[in-house]
Protein backbone atom coordinates (compact mmCIF):
# COMPACT_ATOMS: atom_id res chain seq x y z
CA UNK A 1 0.00 0.00 0.00
CA UNK A 2 3.02 2.26 -0.27
CA UNK A 3 2.83 5.52 -2.17
CA UNK A 4 6.60 6.27 -2.14
CA UNK A 5 5.90 9.58 -0.43
CA UNK A 6 9.49 10.72 -0.17
CA UNK A 7 10.16 9.99 -3.84
CA UNK A 8 7.02 11.88 -4.79
CA UNK A 9 8.11 14.93 -2.81
CA UNK A 10 11.63 14.79 -4.26
CA UNK A 11 10.21 14.74 -7.78
CA UNK A 12 7.95 17.68 -6.98
CA UNK A 13 10.87 19.61 -5.53
CA UNK A 14 12.92 18.95 -8.66
CA UNK A 15 10.06 20.00 -10.93
CA UNK A 16 9.36 23.08 -8.85
CA UNK A 17 12.88 24.47 -9.08
CA UNK A 18 11.14 27.83 -9.21
CA UNK A 19 9.47 27.45 -5.82
CA UNK A 20 7.51 30.68 -6.23
CA UNK A 21 4.82 28.52 -7.87
CA UNK A 22 4.48 26.35 -4.78
CA UNK A 23 4.68 29.30 -2.41
CA UNK A 24 1.97 31.25 -4.24
CA UNK A 25 -0.41 28.30 -3.98
CA UNK A 26 0.27 27.99 -0.26
CA UNK A 27 -0.16 31.75 0.21
CA UNK A 28 -3.64 31.54 -1.31
CA UNK A 29 -4.59 28.47 0.73
CA UNK A 30 -3.38 30.15 3.95
CA UNK A 31 -5.26 33.37 3.09
CA UNK A 32 -8.53 31.51 2.43
CA UNK A 33 -8.23 29.41 5.62
CA UNK A 34 -7.45 32.47 7.73
CA UNK A 35 -10.27 34.50 6.19
CA UNK A 36 -12.87 31.77 6.72
CA UNK A 37 -12.20 31.63 10.47
CA UNK A 38 -10.01 33.30 13.04
CA UNK A 39 -6.52 34.23 11.74
CA UNK A 40 -5.07 32.28 14.69
CA UNK A 41 -4.06 28.65 14.10
CA UNK A 42 -4.80 27.74 17.72
CA UNK A 43 -8.50 28.50 17.20
CA UNK A 44 -8.72 27.77 13.47
CA UNK A 45 -8.08 24.10 12.69
CA UNK A 46 -8.15 24.61 8.92
CA UNK A 47 -5.44 27.25 9.20
CA UNK A 48 -3.42 25.14 11.63
CA UNK A 49 -3.53 22.23 9.20
CA UNK A 50 -2.34 24.20 6.18
CA UNK A 51 0.45 25.82 8.22
CA UNK A 52 1.70 22.40 9.32
CA UNK A 53 1.67 21.23 5.72
CA UNK A 54 3.42 24.40 4.56
CA UNK A 55 6.20 23.70 7.05
CA UNK A 56 7.03 20.40 5.32
CA UNK A 57 7.43 22.33 2.06
CA UNK A 58 9.68 24.94 3.71
CA UNK A 59 7.37 27.84 2.91
CA UNK A 60 9.12 31.00 4.22
CA UNK A 61 7.69 32.71 7.29
CA UNK A 62 7.35 36.05 5.52
CA UNK A 63 5.02 34.51 2.92
CA UNK A 64 2.91 32.90 5.66
CA UNK A 65 2.74 36.12 7.68
CA UNK A 66 1.83 38.19 4.63
CA UNK A 67 -1.06 35.85 3.75
CA UNK A 68 -2.41 35.94 7.31
CA UNK A 69 -2.03 39.74 7.52
CA UNK A 70 -3.94 40.05 4.26
CA UNK A 71 -6.78 38.00 5.76
CA UNK A 72 -6.75 40.13 8.91
CA UNK A 73 -7.14 43.18 6.71
CA UNK A 74 -10.47 41.85 5.54
CA UNK A 75 -9.67 41.60 1.84
CA UNK A 76 -12.69 41.60 -0.44
CA UNK A 77 -11.53 38.62 -2.51
CA UNK A 78 -13.83 35.63 -2.29
CA UNK A 79 -12.76 32.12 -3.28
CA UNK A 80 -14.69 28.91 -3.91
CA UNK A 81 -13.31 25.46 -3.16
CA UNK A 82 -13.95 23.17 -6.11
CA UNK A 83 -13.28 19.52 -6.89
CA UNK A 84 -13.09 18.08 -10.39
CA UNK A 85 -12.88 14.41 -11.29
CA UNK A 86 -11.70 12.85 -14.49
CA UNK A 87 -9.85 10.15 -16.34
CA UNK A 88 -6.38 10.04 -17.86
CA UNK A 89 -4.77 7.63 -20.33
CA UNK A 90 -5.81 3.98 -20.01
CA UNK A 91 -8.68 4.83 -17.67
CA UNK A 92 -6.46 6.22 -14.92
CA UNK A 93 -8.37 8.21 -12.29
CA UNK A 94 -7.62 11.80 -11.29
CA UNK A 95 -9.00 14.23 -8.70
CA UNK A 96 -8.29 17.96 -8.95
CA UNK A 97 -8.87 20.37 -6.05
CA UNK A 98 -8.94 24.09 -6.78
CA UNK A 99 -9.43 27.45 -5.11
CA UNK A 100 -10.81 30.07 -7.45
CA UNK A 101 -12.41 33.50 -7.66
CA UNK A 102 -13.72 32.68 -11.15
CA UNK A 103 -15.49 29.33 -11.37
CA UNK A 104 -16.08 29.50 -15.13
CA UNK A 105 -12.42 30.20 -15.85
CA UNK A 106 -11.21 27.35 -13.68
CA UNK A 107 -13.67 24.82 -15.08
CA UNK A 108 -12.67 25.79 -18.62
CA UNK A 109 -8.94 25.52 -17.89
CA UNK A 110 -9.24 22.16 -16.12
CA UNK A 111 -11.40 20.76 -18.93
CA UNK A 112 -8.89 21.99 -21.52
CA UNK A 113 -5.95 20.45 -19.64
CA UNK A 114 -7.72 17.09 -19.61
CA UNK A 115 -8.78 17.30 -23.25
CA UNK A 116 -5.40 18.35 -24.64
CA UNK A 117 -3.52 15.61 -22.82
CA UNK A 118 -5.41 12.41 -23.47
CA UNK A 119 -7.94 12.69 -20.66
CA UNK A 120 -11.53 13.68 -20.12
CA UNK A 121 -13.62 15.19 -17.35
CA UNK A 122 -16.01 13.02 -15.40
CA UNK A 123 -19.10 13.86 -13.37
CA UNK A 124 -18.98 14.40 -9.63
CA UNK A 125 -18.49 11.06 -7.87
CA UNK A 126 -17.22 9.22 -10.94
CA UNK A 127 -13.73 8.90 -9.48
CA UNK A 128 -13.72 9.93 -5.83
CA UNK A 129 -15.46 6.74 -4.67
CA UNK A 130 -12.19 4.92 -5.42
CA UNK A 131 -10.18 7.16 -3.07
CA UNK A 132 -10.08 7.50 0.71
CA UNK A 133 -9.52 10.78 2.54
CA UNK A 134 -6.41 9.96 4.59
CA UNK A 135 -4.07 11.62 7.07
CA UNK A 136 -0.46 10.81 6.22
CA UNK A 137 2.71 11.48 8.17
CA UNK A 138 6.34 10.80 7.30
CA UNK A 139 8.92 10.59 10.09
CA UNK A 140 12.66 10.06 9.93
CA UNK A 141 14.89 8.68 12.67
CA UNK A 142 12.29 6.32 14.15
CA UNK A 143 11.28 2.72 13.57
CA UNK A 144 7.85 1.29 12.93
CA UNK A 145 7.86 -0.16 16.46
CA UNK A 146 8.71 3.27 17.93
CA UNK A 147 5.72 4.87 16.25
CA UNK A 148 3.36 2.06 17.13
CA UNK A 149 4.34 2.38 20.79
CA UNK A 150 3.76 6.16 20.78
CA UNK A 151 0.30 5.78 19.27
CA UNK A 152 -0.65 2.91 21.58
CA UNK A 153 0.32 4.95 24.65
CA UNK A 154 -1.87 7.79 23.37
CA UNK A 155 -4.72 5.32 22.69
CA UNK A 156 -4.71 6.21 19.00
CA UNK A 157 -5.19 3.93 16.01
CA UNK A 158 -3.70 4.12 12.54
CA UNK A 159 -4.86 2.46 9.35
CA UNK A 160 -1.32 1.45 8.48
CA UNK A 161 2.25 2.04 9.65
CA UNK A 162 5.17 0.96 7.51
CA UNK A 163 8.78 1.77 6.78
CA UNK A 164 9.69 3.32 3.45
CA UNK A 165 13.38 3.85 2.77
CA UNK A 166 14.59 5.92 5.76
CA UNK A 167 11.15 7.04 6.91
CA UNK A 168 8.17 5.63 8.76
CA UNK A 169 4.85 6.40 7.07
CA UNK A 170 1.56 6.58 8.96
CA UNK A 171 -1.87 6.38 7.34
CA UNK A 172 -4.79 7.33 9.60
CA UNK A 173 -8.37 8.57 9.57
CA UNK A 174 -8.50 12.28 8.68
CA UNK A 175 -10.23 13.24 11.92
CA UNK A 176 -7.23 11.83 13.81
CA UNK A 177 -4.72 14.17 12.14
CA UNK A 178 -4.31 16.67 14.96
CA UNK A 179 -4.48 14.05 17.74
CA UNK A 180 -1.76 11.93 16.13
CA UNK A 181 0.41 14.93 15.41
CA UNK A 182 0.04 16.10 19.03
CA UNK A 183 1.01 12.64 20.33
CA UNK A 184 4.07 12.55 18.09
CA UNK A 185 5.12 16.04 19.18
CA UNK A 186 4.61 15.07 22.82
CA UNK A 187 7.05 12.21 22.18
CA UNK A 188 9.62 14.69 20.86
CA UNK A 189 8.94 14.36 17.12
CA UNK A 190 8.67 17.88 15.73
CA UNK A 191 9.88 17.46 12.14
CA UNK A 192 7.91 15.63 9.46
CA UNK A 193 8.79 14.80 5.87
CA UNK A 194 5.04 14.62 5.22
CA UNK A 195 2.14 15.91 7.32
CA UNK A 196 -1.03 16.34 5.32
CA UNK A 197 -4.45 15.12 4.34
CA UNK A 198 -4.59 13.42 0.98
CA UNK A 199 -6.94 11.46 -1.23
CA UNK A 200 -5.36 8.00 -1.29
CA UNK A 201 -6.31 5.60 -4.07
CA UNK A 202 -7.78 2.37 -2.76
CA UNK A 203 -5.97 0.50 -5.52
CA UNK A 204 -3.05 1.76 -7.54
CA UNK A 205 -2.78 0.78 -11.19
CA UNK A 206 0.07 0.57 -13.64
CA UNK A 207 -0.25 1.98 -17.13
CA UNK A 208 1.66 0.88 -20.24
CA UNK A 209 5.13 2.35 -20.57
CA UNK A 210 4.19 4.13 -23.78
CA UNK A 211 1.40 6.00 -21.94
CA UNK A 212 3.46 7.20 -18.97
CA UNK A 213 4.85 10.31 -20.68
CA UNK A 214 1.37 11.40 -21.73
CA UNK A 215 0.00 10.76 -18.23
CA UNK A 216 2.78 12.80 -16.60
CA UNK A 217 2.18 15.59 -19.12
CA UNK A 218 -1.49 15.65 -18.11
CA UNK A 219 -0.65 15.80 -14.39
CA UNK A 220 1.89 18.58 -15.02
CA UNK A 221 -0.66 20.56 -17.06
CA UNK A 222 -3.21 20.32 -14.24
CA UNK A 223 -0.73 21.19 -11.49
CA UNK A 224 0.53 24.18 -13.49
CA UNK A 225 -2.92 25.81 -13.51
CA UNK A 226 -2.95 28.83 -11.23
CA UNK A 227 -6.23 27.88 -9.53
CA UNK A 228 -5.32 24.23 -8.91
CA UNK A 229 -4.06 23.43 -5.40
CA UNK A 230 -3.82 19.63 -5.36
CA UNK A 231 -3.93 16.79 -7.88
CA UNK A 232 -4.43 13.15 -6.84
CA UNK A 233 -4.31 10.03 -8.99
CA UNK A 234 -4.26 6.25 -8.78
CA UNK A 235 -1.25 5.50 -11.00
CA UNK A 236 1.83 3.78 -9.63
CA UNK A 237 4.69 5.54 -11.38
CA UNK A 238 7.34 3.62 -9.46
CA UNK A 239 10.48 5.49 -8.51
UniProtKB/TrEMBL annotation:
Major localisation: cytoplasm
N-terminal signal peptide: none
Alphabetical keyword list: Cytoplasm, DNA-binding, Transcription, Transcription regulation
Domain of life of the source: Bacteria
Alphabetized GO MF terms: DNA binding
Family: Belongs to the TACO1 family. YeeN subfamily.
Record-annotated TACO1/YebC-like second and third domain positions: 79-235
Keyword Membrane tagged: no
Domain TACO1/YebC-like N-terminal, first and last residues per copy: 3-74
SUPFAM superfamilies: YebC-like (SSF75625)
Subcellular location: Cytoplasm
Protein name in the entry: Probable transcriptional regulatory protein JOC95_001698
Keyword DNA-binding carried by entry: yes
